[in-house]
Structure formats: structure tokens, C-alpha cells
Amino acid sequence: MSDGPTHKDFQNALDKHWHDRPPASLEDVMALYGVLAVAESGGGLYTTPSKLQPFVDDGRLVTVSLDLTGDSPKIVSLDQDDLRDEDVPQLGYSHKSSGRGAKYSLTQIGSKNGNDAEGVSSTLLGRIRSWTGQDSVENFTSGNGNPDGWLIETLGDVFEKDSETLESLKVKIIELLPADESIPYVMTVRLKLNPVNLESVDATNQEWFYPAEVGILEEAMKRYATANAANKNIDKGASEGQGIGVVSGEKGRVVGTPESPLGVFSVKHPDAQPDLRKTESWRNYPVSDDVAMLFAKGQDLIDRCIYRNGGMETYALPYFAGEMTGKKADALYLAIDSVDGDRQIGESADPPMAQVTFNLTENDDETIRELAEQELRFYTVTMPTSDDKNIIAEEPTASIYWPNKLADSLRQTIEGPTLNPARGGFEQFNNWPLLKLDTDTTRASRRRLAFMRITNHEFTDAVFAYRDEEDDDFRRIIDHRLLSGAPVDAKTLFEEYLQRYDDASEDGDIPPQQIVAQQLVHLETLSRAGLLDGIDTSIEPTETTMTTETTIDTSNIATIREQRLDGFLDRPLFDDTTRKAAALAGVLVGQISWHQDSVRGVGRPLDSGMKGDQLTKNGLENVLTAALEKAKVYAQDSDRSFDRDLLFPETVDRLLDETEVIPTNWEIDKRELQFCYVLGHAHGRRSMPVAFQMYDGDEAESSEAVSTENTSN
User: Fold this and answer.
1) In 456-576, alpha helices (H)
2) 445-477 pLDDT, tens per residue?
3) In terms of domain of life, where is this protein from (predicted)?
4) What's the pTM?
5) Residues 6+ apart with CB under 8 A from 94
6) Are residues 112 and 97 in contact, defined by beta-carbon separation less than 8 angstroms?
7) DSSP code of residue 115
């Protein structure tokens, strides 16, 4: 056998088990993953020959030959031989991945690490006995109207617990197999039958039949494999009837308790569905036996697409929007199979959505890259990580366009003036997800890192208010909105930003300026991507600001401050007079407070009594009056060359130019006022320290500047 499934294997699986239309529902995507698993496991919906590969060549096949042509069953031989590839198709093996005990088929397997003779005689033989006693298998007895049911009854008698035949087999196995050596074993039953007496075998001259060659054994295997789909979590009876299947669209037998997509639909929690009658659930959720099996087979692939964060789990299930082909299915399977749940870039988790996206968009095959750009979609679902399976947010057709758009906008913002001190911006910092991308990598690598920040929730979590781990619904709802290209209202953002600002305050201390810098990066990124509503201007700096190289005169502290302030204000957000005045008020309060902290040693600086998230217009008027007064008083006590008759004159002059009316008469939303003030305050608090860092003028004044800066850290 080949190392893995081929395009042809996937096409064959699609031809057998997939409808012609593109995926259009969560159930469609679940079923599609089952089809992928069918191709991977050897091409059978119920049989799973690939699961026998670890036993081929290195393992042994133990065969019980049972003659059923006489008056009574007779075991004519017990043989062992090497398991070969050519043996696998006739065994009809069907793997049961969950739980222990019998597998779905009459053929049973032991441990891949091997069993000794005692293990085979007790475990494997016990599993064959268990198979014949399954309720779903016994439903095929002649008493239930099946003409070939006598075969199931006969097998049940032969392998009945403590029967003479079973005990005799145990002894023969101990005698036949090595007592101590552990070998991987597969056990099956070969039957001598008269085809005339069975409707479920073809009339031939054949005498001996393996499980895959007997129709009633295959049907019993299928019913066993899908038994839970009709009676899981139902104490009495089953949920089955005639209806139109949710995926197949065909009328026939349907069941109501299949492996539910993501556990969303289940009769396990009746309190969540008070009007649901368990045995009638097939009417609410009609699934055919074959589709139920597809759901079960696709579970491993689905589990690779989960990203858990806090109290939430987000499924990002990739699929192609167009007609499915073998090549598309192969590419999709390989992309999902390559996901490493523990993969990280730096300190950040690399979510499945990012891993799948770049596996396909950076594929060596150009046609796969083009396909990913045109047709790759994700069915995204977020729900609590608990038994409470209610869906918090859902997006059926998330494309990679908006994550890419946001990633490019985030990269441009981080690499632009906003985090460039020489152009009036904040500083970059490690370990703050929205303040640094690895500048030593290529642009493509930085874009990929930015994409990861968008899809692993850091873009939202870095700036939004803290919530309990089990109560972060709103943040995940925002994530889904952004992935689908739905804009977010600025008022909502300001509310969240300021709550986050309050969260970051410890014992009344002013939060670190990195919090505010991240929020500006976040706001600017959304504006740049066209996903910001409710504000009358763009946030990102103008094209002129972006493209013009700014050269600051670093020989004078006051000049550095003034030119940096001009750069900070040079964005459309501050074209509005009131917003600019609010920001300038914050700058001045931040500068005065820094001076009180670092130069005068004041225990409670001006900003300690006026947190930005609690600011009112009246309070701003009072604190601004105090700041202007102190700017005059403190200047009289200073003998530094960059202080004249007024501290921070560049800020005071601009502020007086912008405030023709007092703050209590400003027309501005409360949260917008507070956010502009907080932005300005964060800039003002770092005005002098950054100026000292950039200063390269007079040596004596430089020494004084460094000394003063050190007292501020």
C-alpha cells in the first residue's frame, strides 16, 4: 500500500459518499471531513483497512475455521500465519476508536504492541464473543424476520460465554501461539457455507467465506457501528424513523442521536431542550446511517481544528467553496492533518486557522495556492468549553480576505509612525502582542505573525476589558464579526478600551502606557482595514505622514518635545478641534505629573486624582486649570535651559489655541473625550523620557537629562 491516500482515493470516496453540491451547512462540513477520513482509512465508509497496516507483515492472522454445512457447527481448524496486504480486504475490519471492547466487525484486533497467547485467548476471543452478543447484531436474527438471521444465531451459540466450543478454542490458542512472546495479532472467523442457504452471499462454487464476503455480517457490522446514532443516551427504545436526511437530502431511514456536530445537538442534556422527546429526536435532527458514520469518522479531523482560549473553544473548519474534487480533498486533508495543536511562534499559540491557511496559501503547488485564495472558507463556531454546548458565535463562510486585510493593516500600523518615537509615536515593546513584530524576519513572515495575532484572539484580548474565563462571549463575538468583515462601532471600542484601562489600574496607579499604545494600534488597524464605524474620520495618519521622513533636531530637548507633539497630533482623528483639545489636555496633565514625580518628588502627582476612565468635563476643567497654574509656578523654580517662563510651552500654546470654549461646553461623547484624553496623557507621561533618550546635544545638559531620566524609571 502507498504511504498515504492519493487524489484518486479521495475522488473515489467523493464519488461514493458525497453529494454534488458545495458544502452549505455545518453538517455538510462534518460529513465532508468523514469523506476525507474514508479515503485516508482505505476507502470504506464502514470498513477501515488502514487500521490493519500496523499489523501487516509484522503481525499474525489467527483464523478460526468454522464449518456450518453439517447438522451442527464444527470448528475444523485453528491456524496462524503472517498477515499480508492481500488478506486485508476479505477481513472486513471496522475500527471502533472510542472505548474498549469489541470492534464493529467480526474480525477483531489486539494491541499494536502485541499480545501473548493468554492475551489472545482471553481478549481477542472475548471480543468475538462480545460482538455476537451485541443488541444491534442480534437484531439480525431470524426471529426479527431476517432470512439469513440463523447465521447470527449460530455464531452466538458457538461463541456463547462458557460454552464447550469457546473453552476448547481457548485451550487450542494457548497450545498454538507462543506463551511469552508478544506479537500483534488479528483474529477472524472463516465460514464454510452452502450459498444456496444464504441470500446474502452470491451463488458460486465457493465453499469458504471470510466476513467481508457475507452480506449479513456486513449489515450487522454497519448496524453495530451506527447503533449509538439511534439510541445514545436513551434508556428505553430508540430514535429512528423515515425522513429526509439533513445532508443526503434523500428520504429513507434516519436516526436522531448521531455523533452530533461539535456536540451541539444532543439528547444528553434534556434541560437544555425541555420540549424534546428523546425517541422523537430524529424528527428534529434526521441523519441517515451513512451520514451518521461520516460524522463519527470525521471527528479526529474536526478535533485538529479546535482552538481553546480561556473558557471558550473556537472551531475553524476549513473547506473549499466550489465543487469538491479529488485534488481539493487531498489538499484539504493534508492541510488539516498537518496542524500541530502545540505549535507556537514565540510565546503565542499558532491557531489551526492560521496553520491551515498558510499550508494552502504557501503550498508548493501553484494551483493549490490559487485555489486557496479563491475558494478557501472556514465554518467558525465558538462555544463554552463545558457541557453547555450553546453556540456563542457562528460564521458559516469566513474567507481569508478579512483576516489577511486585518493582518496587513496591523503590520502597517506597527511599522508606521504610531510606534515610531522619532515621528511622534509611542515605542515598540516586546511581549506586548500589538506593539512588536519580529523585525529580523521577512515581510511575509511578519505578515504571517500578524495573521496569527488576528486568529488566536490576541488582537481582541490585548485591548478589551478583562472578563471571567467563562464569560468572554462578547470578545469572541467581536472576533467572528471581524473575520466576516462586519465593522465594529467606535463607541463600543471606546467603552471596552476604557474598561480595560480601569482593569490595568492597580491600587489607583496609572496603567502602563503600553495598554493605551496597543489600543491606538487596534483602533488604527480597524480604521485602516475599513472595519470601523461610528466615527467621522479615519484614525490612521495621513499618507503624507506615512511617506515623509521626519528629521527631528535632537540637539535641543524643547525642540524634540515640540516636534514629537506635532507628529503625535498629525492624524485625521485630531483634525477635530475638540478631540485635539482633549488630547492636548491629557498631554499637559501627563507632562506636569511626570515633572512632579521625577523632578519635584511630589507624592501624589496631578494625574493620581484624575484617572482617564473616570474623567468628566467638569473634572477636566478643574484639572486643566491646575495644570496651567503649575506650569507657570514650576517654571519659576527651574534653572534648566529647556524650561523658560513656562513649563512645556509647546503644549500650553497649542492647548490655548484649541480651547476657545471651556471643557464643560465641549460637544463630544463622554467615552470619546476620555479616550482622547488618555491617548494624550500616555504621550505626555513619556514626553520628557523619550526626549532624553533622543537628545544628543550639550554634554553637561545631556548628563543632567540622563540623571533626571533615571529618577523617572
Assistant:
1) 458-461, 473-483, 490-503, 513-529, 543-547, 557-569
2) 888 999 999 999 999 999 999 877 666 789 999
3) Archaea
4) 0.88
5) 44, 46, 47, 48, 103, 104, 105, 221, 225
6) no
7) B
